[in-house]
Fold this protein.
Amino acid sequence: MHCIHLSIKEKARQTDQSKKENVNIFISTSTLRTAHEKQQNESTARIARITALRLFESTAKIALNRLHFIMHKMTHN
């Protein structure tokens, strides 16, 4: 085993480097959190659009079925 003695200047440099890494990790975590929230919001908006489209399609199908029924009834009377 080797015993390594670091100078005060080297220890200070490592401490500064460590602080920079911690800040970078904090920023990265914050960035990831923001990206995740944005993705969740986009996903919610996409689900809302799909739901609205399905509701519209369902309403349109009901209206067409009723129209078809009325037309069929009129032609057979």
